[in-house]
Amino acid sequence: MKRRHALAGAALAATLLGWGHNPATAQTFPPPKPVTMVVGFAPGGAADMAARLIASELGGLIGQSVVVENRAGAGGNIAHALVAKGPKDGSMLLFGSVGPLTISPHLMKLNYDPFKDLAPVSGGVHFPNLLVVHQGTGMKRFADFIAKAKAQPDTVEYASSGAGSASHLTGVLLGQRAGAAMVHVPYKGGAPALQDVLGQRVTAYFAAPPTAMPYVATGQLTALATTGLTRPDYMPDVPTVAESGFPGFEALNWYAFVAPAGTPDALLEQWNAAIVQVLDKPTVKDSLKKHGLTPHPTTRQGLADFMQAEYDKWGQVVKEGNLAGAR
């Protein structure tokens, strides 16, 4: 009985998405083998949490297993390079991130080109970073952090989920705007970065809300500011950097779905339809928002345009900071 219900659900999903209307793709989507969704960071961080939630929903929708594979390292670039050379049959997706897709190309020589070797599929989620410090630092306000960074140059360390990540460049952008020199300490993902802030081995971290919010709630960490233009609904008492003396400051973190370039357009469109449908589900929206993540489904072209805008923005930050070649 359960199997018949599952098959009926898959058939309904296929009908809603128009699968099978094109004879050329009817045998290839959903893929006949389990789908791999690659994540460029360690388990336990925002990327991993969001990817696993979405992968589970996608698997149920298409009637095929979608397995999350963590390939941490090099700020996410290892995973992105892997997918860039991956199979072009629709069986591999990348939960790509702002760093490798739009920042790393400005910082270092890569063995892949995110705009040539990866094909946009759909936006995933976006969210502001949350500047947190251990309560033992004694910092209570964002102004305290800036004052120390300016008074004691090169003594305030901030963690990131990797060189070239959004958390890395957010610190660079803030340093440029504030005229403060801070020391960047990269990690292999958000979870290990946060652990060293909790262990007071590094001063601060521009964290993803899902990883930091539980510790803010218990008082172990102090949230000093968020990096969006407006205060998030889930933390209305935490000011933005923009309203704390730096008008217009915005540094969003985001994840989006891409696939190996050369994957047939028909398959990419099918994946886009499936991902958009999942991200539009009220239950998925609620689950993501409880963790401080905002669903951001797009068309394929919409994601391509968004990536280009982010590439241009962060390229200017890298240029002004003379960071090219930095690791």
Automatic annotation (TrEMBL):
- Keywords for this protein: Signal
Q: Where is the signal peptide?
A: 1-26
InterPro entries for this protein: BUG, Bug_dom1
CDD domains noted in UniProt:
PBP2_Bug_TTT (cd07012)
- What Pfam families has UniProt attached to this entry? TctC
Q: What domain of life?
A: Bacteria
The UniProt family comment states: Belongs to the UPF0065 (bug) family.
Which PANTHER family does this chain map to?
Answer: BLR1237 PROTEIN, TRICARBOXYLATE-BINDING PROTEIN
Q: Report the protein name in the record.
A: Tripartite tricarboxylate transporter substrate binding protein
Q: What is the lineage of its organism?
A: Bacteria, Pseudomonadati, Pseudomonadota, Betaproteobacteria, Burkholderiales
